[in-house]
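tool_log.txt
---
The assistant was asked to compare two proteins side by side. It first ran the structure predictor on the initial sequence, then on the second. Raw inputs and outputs are pasted verbatim so the downstream comparison step can read them without reformatting.
(1)
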Amino acid sequence: MYFVVKGCMRQYIINSKGTEQTLQFGIENWWITDYLSYHNHVPSHFYIQAVETTDVIAIEKSVLDSLLIQIPKLEKYFRIVAQKAFGAAQMRIKFLFTMSAEERYNHFKNLQPDFVQRVPQYMLASYLDFSAEFMSKIRAGKV
C-alpha cells in the first residue's frame, strides 16, 4: 500500500487496444494500491505511476498486519480508508453510467478545480472515460 505524502500518483490498466485507462488518482494524504493483489499476495493487474514528483510511504502487508496487532486503533483507521475508497469507486461507476462525458468533466472540474490543472489532460480524459481529443473539444466549448 502506498500513502502519498506529496505529489500525485495514478493507477491504470492498458486495455486490449494498447490504450491506458486511468482508474484512480492518489494525491496528498490518500492511499493507493491494488487491494486484491495486496490482500491475496498475488501479482497486480494494475500499474501505479507517479504523475509528478512524489513522496510515498510504502507499507508491506506483513508490516501492516503487525502494526494492526500492536496498535488496534489503526484497524478502525484502515477500515474507514477502505470504506471511503470503496464509496468513491461506487460513485465513479455511478457517474460513468448516468452522466454524459461533458457532464462528467464539468462535475469533476467543479468538484476538483485545482486537480484538473494538475494532471496531464490525457490522463484526466482516460479517467473520465473519453478520448483526449474529446477533452480538447469540451475545454474549447465545441461540444
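(2)
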Amino acid sequence: MQSNLTTTDGPAVHVPVMVAAELQDSLLVVMHDLHRLEGLLNHAADNLMERFGEANAALANPVLGSSAELEAARSALRGAVTELQFQDMASQLIWHTTKVLQSCAFRLASEAMGHEEGEEAAPFAEMAPDRPNPVTQSEMDAGSVDLF
C-alpha cells in the first residue's frame, strides 16, 4: 500500500505506510528519550541547588570570619549557581524539540494513514512551536541576566 505525502502547493512523495509507521515510531522514541533527558537534567539541577545551599550556609557561618580565601569561595559559589541557568535553557530546548518532533510524527501519521470519513485532521500548526529556537543565548557570564 502506498501513501501520498503532499503539501498544499508541492509535489507528492510516495511513502509506503510501513516506512511512515517506522519513522513515526522513531520520532516517538526520540521524544521519549528527550523527556528522560529533561528529567535527568532537572534531577541534577535540583541536587546541585541543594548542595549549593548547604555550601552557602556553611560559608555564611560567622565562626569562619572573613578572609580573601573565604570571599573567593563565596564568589565561586555564586558563579556556580549562575551556571545553573544551563538547566533552564536545556529544558527549553528539549521542550521545543519535543514539540517539533511530535508535530512531525502526527503529521506523518495523518498523511500516511489518511483520515476516516467525518474525522478532522489534527491541527499540526497549533502543535508546532511558533519560533524556530526558544533559546538564543549560547553562553552565560556571572552577574549577567538574560531574559529568554
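---
observation on (2): The longest strand covers residues 2-5. Residues 122 and 133 are 23 Å apart (CA to CA).
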